[in-house]
């Protein structure tokens, strides 16, 4: 049989299987009604697509190359038959971000597909956002052939085996499919990784060029399913009784709600009220408690807020929920200056025991928090916390007044623009308020926009703001907009980005039009990396190489892409509001360019309220850390 005939027969067999799956409404249904036999002869590429389909993965974001042509052919046929969808992209980093957002924002598990070499390395770099934020996605990369016939083009040029597999195993979990029959084991490990209830992350599948079309006999019934994991909590009452005693005896109590509390809003609120605790948010947990809730002290940490950092510094007992203790969240370990003990609720043992003097309540956050809250309610543990909550409320009022002065500030004269321009807090507040008004999701890019953003947003539930503070990856937010074109139930979204972050991944202008994104990008342009300029000024009194003298007309730049609605955001609040309305009315992707003030005026930023182990602050922070008992 010729190669052409083998290819024709293989294509026909794949198409028949895809039709059976489509007709039955799914792989398992096709097995159950006999439309598919249990055992089939197929290739590794099709086996992988079938295995991922059994786990609910039917959407692929891809940039194909010579390292992924065989997998691409399988995806072509399965898309023809309406079983999978593939979305072609233009940059692997941006593609990885969009996949992360699809899982993070919408709960859908996608797969990222690249070729071998530079493309894989780019997607691998982008996977840092998924790893840092605990988001489970599949990454499928081409890899060097297994026959060892010599260097493969674009492999790592070093005489060692499996180097891409070694690299990817550092960032997440990884499997090199050197042997096609190992696909079942690979997918079993992948299912646990991307669906882990507490430590989800990217799973990397490396497909050697020559094993992709290799034949194997596959048992469809034996392909692993997506795991169904029941929530866990401590088996006995003893640790809950101990925690109740600690909480009842404490007069000043703070809850640090980390990124892991997203989606556990009701349980965190119940626990906070039952304990009489001030709740300090992380950038990634805004909305876990309604903004105006009396116990909500807003963000705390190295950037933080007046009220959040006050609660951290004064609390005598700390309850940490769903937090890794990241340096910027706990002021490099010295944010809790008076805490004598810690109760830590987390499913991960390492995170649950991050601090000394810890009572670890390991397990599912809602399951643990609700059990503890029930005991606290019965014992009336919150009864002695009124003075503490009143002091925190005064600090929250102080923070609100401080913010209001910046939100209501008139435009400030800027040296670059040679005219008055809105300061960034005022401009971000206008856009954040508009997003709340129209029910849009807010996506924040790294940098000064992000740093001001999590101090500004006033969310009443989790899921309204996505700020990638895990890795602080420039270009994440604009790339994440693509997820809204891929999701089954899309939501209008607004990406808040700086000029620097936007230029990291501007191809969203093309991908967004190609795939039908409906949303808005707002570029807050201060012609510099303002977050780093501000840090340099605070530490050393001088900015250095964080700006340039190159003017960019972002309206013309965006408008050069067919289908983009490019708008100037104006110089005043009213002009910006009008631009937002125009953008929202557009049936597609809009870009609003907003020139903002950059300088040292006191109303130009929201300040930093904590400590951080960077630059010339290191000696003081480390000295204090050495003296900490926690």
Low-confidence stretches: none
How many helices?
A: 24
Mean pLDDT: 95
Report strand %.
15-25%
Q: How many domain modules?
A: 3
Within CATH, the superfamily of the largest domain carries the name Thiamin diphosphate (ThDP)-binding fold, Pyr/PP domains
Describe it:
- It is a single chain.
- The protein is an alpha/beta fold and 630 residues long.
- It has 3 domains: 32-222, 3-Layer(aba) Sandwich (Rossmann fold), CATH 3.40.50.970; 238-399, TPP-binding domain (Rossmann fold, 3-Layer(aba) Sandwich); 416-598, 3-Layer(aba) Sandwich (Rossmann fold).
- Helix content is 42%, strand content 17%.
- The chain has 24 helices and 22 strands.
- The strands form 5 sheets. A 6-stranded parallel beta sheet has the order 3-2-4-5-7-6, with helices on both faces. A 6-stranded parallel beta sheet has the order 11-10-9-12-13-14, with helices on both faces. Strands 18-17-19-20-22-21 form a 6-stranded parallel beta sheet, sandwiched between helices.
- Helix 4 (69-80) links the parallel strand 2 (59-62) and strand 3.
- Helix 5 packs parallel to helix 6 (118-133).
- The chain is globular, with a radius of gyration of 26 Å.
- The termini are far apart.
- 54% of the residues are buried.
- The mean pLDDT is 95.
């Amino acid at each position: 049989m010729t190669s052409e005939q083998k290819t024709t027969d293989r294509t026909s067999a794949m198409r028949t299987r895809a039709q059976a799956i489509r007709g039955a409404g799914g792989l398992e249904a096709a097995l159950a009604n006999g439309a598919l036999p249990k055992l089939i002869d197929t290739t590794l590429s099709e086996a992988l697509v079938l295995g991922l389909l059994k786990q609910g993965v039917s959407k692929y974001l891809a940039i194909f190359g010579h390292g992924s042509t065989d997998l691409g052919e399988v995806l072509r046929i399965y898309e023809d038959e309406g079983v999978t969808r593939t979305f072609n992209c233009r940059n692997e980093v941006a593609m990885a971000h969009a996949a992360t957002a699809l899982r993070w924002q919408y709960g859908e598990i996608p797969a990222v597909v690249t070729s071998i070499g530079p493309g894989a390395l780019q997607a691998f770099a982008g996977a840092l956002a998924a790893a840092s934020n605990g988001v489970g996605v599949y990454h499928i990369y081409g890899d060097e052939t297994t026959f060892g016939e010599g260097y493969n083009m674009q492999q790592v040029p070093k005489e060692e085996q499996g180097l891409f597999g070694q690299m990817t195993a550092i960032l997440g979990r990884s499997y090199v499919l050197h042997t096609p029959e190992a696909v079942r084991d690979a997918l079993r490990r992948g299912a646990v990784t991307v669906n882990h209830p507490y430590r989800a992350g990217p799973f990397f599948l490396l497909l050697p060029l020559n094993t992709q079309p290799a034949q194997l006999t596959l048992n469809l019934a034996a392909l692993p399913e997506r795991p169904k994991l029941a929530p866990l909590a401590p088996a006995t009452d003893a640790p809950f009784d101990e925690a109740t005693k600690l909480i009842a005896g404490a007069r000043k109590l703070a809850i640090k709600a980390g990124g892991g509390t997203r989606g556990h809003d009701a349980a965190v609120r119940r626990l906070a009220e039952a304990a009489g605790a001030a709740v300090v948010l992380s950038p990634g947990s805004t909305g876990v408690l309604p903004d105006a809730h009396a116990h909500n002290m807003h963000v705390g940490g190295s950037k933080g807020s007046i009220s959040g950092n006050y609660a951290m510094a004064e609390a005598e007992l700390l309850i940490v929920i769903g937090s890794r203790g990241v340096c910027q969240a706990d002021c490099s370990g010295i944010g809790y200056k008076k805490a004598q003990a810690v109760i830590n609720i987390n499913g991960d043992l390492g995170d649950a025991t991050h601090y000394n003097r810890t009572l670890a309540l390991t397990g599912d956050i809602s399951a643990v928090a609700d059990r503890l809250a029930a005991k606290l309610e019965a014992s009336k543990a919150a009864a002695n916390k009124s003075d503490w909550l009143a002091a925190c409320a005064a600090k929250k009022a102080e923070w609100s007044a401080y913010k209001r002065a910046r939100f209501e500030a008139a435009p400030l004269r800027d040296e670059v623009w040679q005219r008055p321009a809105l300061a960034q807090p005022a401009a971000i507040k206008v856009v954040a308020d508009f997003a709340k008004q129209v029910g849009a999701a807010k996506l924040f890019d790294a940098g000064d926009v992000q740093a001001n953003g999590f101090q500004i947003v006033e969310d009443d539930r989790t899921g309204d703001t996505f700020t990638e503070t895990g890795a602080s990856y420039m270009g994440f937010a604009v790339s994440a907009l693509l997820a809204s074109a891929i999701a089954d139930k899309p939501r209008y979204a607004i990406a808040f980005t700086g000029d620097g972050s936007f230029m990291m991944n501007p191809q969203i202008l093309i991908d967004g039009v190609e795939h039908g994104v409906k949303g808005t990008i707002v570029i807050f342009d201060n012609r510099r990396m303002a977050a780093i300029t501000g840090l340099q000024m605070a530490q050393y009194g001088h900015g250095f190489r964080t700006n340039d003298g190159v003017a960019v007309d972002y309206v013309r730049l965006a408008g050069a892409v067919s289908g983009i609605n490019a708008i100037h955001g104006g110089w005043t609040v009213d002009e910006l509001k009008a631009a937002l309305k125009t953008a929202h009315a557009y049936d597609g992707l809009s870009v609003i360019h907003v020139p903002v003030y950059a300088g040292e005026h006191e109303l130009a930023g929201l300040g930093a309220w904590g400590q951080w182990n960077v630059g010339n602050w290191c000696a003081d922070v480390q000295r204090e850390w050495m003296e900490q008992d926690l």
